[in-house]
Input
Amino acid sequence: MQPPTNTFFKLLSEKAFLQLSDEEKQLILKRGGLKIGIAETMRENVISTFQIPLGFVSDLKVNGKSYFVPLAIEERGVVSQIIKGIELINSGSGFIAKSTESIMIGQIQIVNIPDLIKAEQNILAEKKNLLVDANSISTTRKAIDLQIKNIDTKFGKMMIVELFIDVKDSMGANIVDSMCELLAPTIEQLSGGRVNIRILSNLATKRMVKVKGKIPYENFNDSSIIEKIVKASIFADADPYRAVTHNKGIMNGVSAVLLATGNDTRAVEAGAHAYASIQGKYTPLSNWKQDSKGNLYGCLQLPMSVGVVGGIVSVHPLAKLCLKILDVKSSEALGQVAGAIGLSSNLGALYTLVTTGITAISK
Ligand code: MEV
Output
């Protein structure tokens, strides 16, 4: 069972709770942790701060480690769905998560190239030096490759230079954009054309997370629920109108973790929905199946460009505190937790939909 809110405050009053300092505890007890002065350093035109509810769910077991997970979300029902999903998957295999490396892609668009073949040869001949230049602006993040793709557009072939950067534990947008901007003048010269835009891609297919979970059939009071969840998943597989709502249920959980930890929810959401349609048809990011023994098995896969250092993560006091409580030290671990919460919110939503219906939980 998950601790209710008052249990959280009881735990907080214990001296050694999660090694929080008195100041950090005060930040929670104050019920609102963003001073206007800090907000003004985050963006332009600030007039106030806008609060949404924050809470924690406990005992999310990912790869054997138990997490206390912060969730910033305003929608009634979602946290109950996440708790249901966690309870079900913890009762079986727990969450098994895997990540790829933390590689982000930067894109440099070049137009008006007189000779595409010559331009490509010139740029590739300089690849080694270009990577050395890119790496002159960071000691921690590393540009590891540069590739060229010529895409078909309504104005004919267009050259896109792609820079692959291992951004480690940062989200990576700043360093990717900075490296692309640094290389653009040289690349423009080598191409004989004109660089138009240079920016990272939010379709982070080289920074993926995959989360699986299995629940033995005997852990369901009513074994027909498994078949109903599988049929709901098949519906999402076949119909984009359902798939998008299925995926919205996943992103309810993912974005709640990302918002609480100061991450860019729009970046991950854009990447998730693009990935959902990468084969030319919009599909669900997760699937639920029944194995030969009748157990329920679910798997979720999505791009996960998140960071535990840099950006808002290092500025917003509550985001810093949430990360400390979550106790993740790498972007990989944060992505796996967010993915596991996404699988939980998805399972909890499907469970609710095939049993009581969604309006019962929202009352
Ligand atoms: C509501 O925020 C999310 C759900 O619509 C997800 C789903 O339909 O799977 C309940």
